[in-house]
Amino acid sequence: MLKVESLVIDRETRIGDNWRQRYKQLILHDPVWFDHMPYIQFPSHWPVFTPKDKLAEFFEAYAMLLELNVWTQTNMTSAKWDAGKQYWTVTVERKTGDKIETRTFHPRHIIQATGHSGKKNFPPSRGWKTSADVYVTVQSFREPTLTLQGNAPSSSDLAIQGMTIIDVRGLVRFHRRHRPIRPLLRRQAPVDDADLILWSLPRPVHKALQQQAAALSIENDRATLEGLTKAGFKLDSGPDGAGLFFKYFQRGGGYYIDVGCSQLIIDGKIKIKQGQEIAEVLPNGLLFADGSRLEADEIVFATGYKNMRTQAEEIFGPEMAAPLKDVWGFDEEGEWRTMWRRSGHPGFWFMGATSRFAGTMADTWRCRSRHWRKA
C-alpha cells in the first residue's frame, strides 16, 4: 500500500499450506476479532474460533484480492549483504511445473516473517537417534497416539484426541476459553480503536490492568483450578500475577486456554507427570530422571520453540545471524525486543504477529474504561 516494491516467497505449494498440514482438529484458540487482517477483515458470519483449513483458505484469498506479489514453491538458497553498496544479493529457486528456475535479486531489505518462534525446542535427552521411530513433533503429528511431552494449547489439543499422559516440565498459566454469544459481536469496539487502546497504553499501566483481570479470572475459574491442582497439575498466575497475556508477551508460551482438556485431567482420564526431566528416550517409551519409566507406542514432543533468532541462523547461516539480537520479551524500556525494530544486522528485520487485544467486547471496553478513569 506504500508503493514499496516487494516479493514474498513461500516454500509451500499453496499459500496457507503451513496451516493445512497441521493436525486435523486444530482450531484457533483466540476469537476471530483478535485476528482481523489489515484492509480485509474476516466476514461477519465467520466462526468465532477459526478451523485451520478455513484460515488457510482465507490467507490464499487475501493474497489474491490484494494482488500481493507471492511466489510459492520457492526457496532462498543464498543471501549475502554488501556493506559498501548497502543491499543484499539473494538467490532463490522457484519451482514452476517440472522446472526449477533460479533468480537473483538485490533487495535493500529482507524481512523474516516466519512467526515469533524459532527452531523446535527438544529437551536434552539421550536416545534420539536410536529411538527415532518412537517420537514425533507436534508439527508432524496427524493422528491420535499415546504419550505427550509438554503442555500448551497444541499439546492439550492432542491430548484430547487420545493421549494418556501429559508430562509438564514447568508451571502453566491456565485460562478458560469462554464461548461468546454471537449477537454480542455487534457490540465490539472497532478494530482500529482496539489497536489504538492497546498500543498507546504504557506497559506498566497495561500490566496493572492485566493483574486485575488475572485476579478476576482466577476467582471465576477457581473450581477448575482447584481440580487441576488436586490432580497434580502445577499452575501459576503469570509474571507478577499479570496472567496469560504477559506470559505470552515475555516468553511466548507457558499457558493453556482451556478447550476441554482440563476436565479430562480432573476426571483422571488424562494423567499428569510433572517436574521430572527426561533422562533418555527408549525404544518403547521414556526414562525419567527419578528412575521411573513410561511405556508408549509413540511420543509427541509439543515442547515449543526457541528464540526467533535461531530460525534466522538456520536460514541465513551463523555468520549472518551472529550480530542479531534476541527477539520477543521486553527490553529495559518495556518495548518488545527486536520485533519491528533494528535487528542488529543492517537491512534485516524480524516481523511477527500478536493478537489484537483491547476493548474487543463492549463489556470489556466499559470495564477497562472504569479502571482507567479510576487510575
From TrEMBL:
Keywords recorded for this protein, A-Z: Monooxygenase, Oxidoreductase
Name of the protein described by the UniProt record: Indole-3-pyruvate monooxygenase YUCCA11
Entry annotated with the keyword Oxidoreductase: yes
Record-linked PANTHER family: FLAVIN-BINDING MONOOXYGENASE-LIKE PROTEIN (AFU_ORTHOLOGUE AFUA_4G09220)
Statement: the UniProt record of this protein carries the keyword Oxidoreductase: yes
Coiled coil: none
MF (Gene Ontology): monooxygenase activity
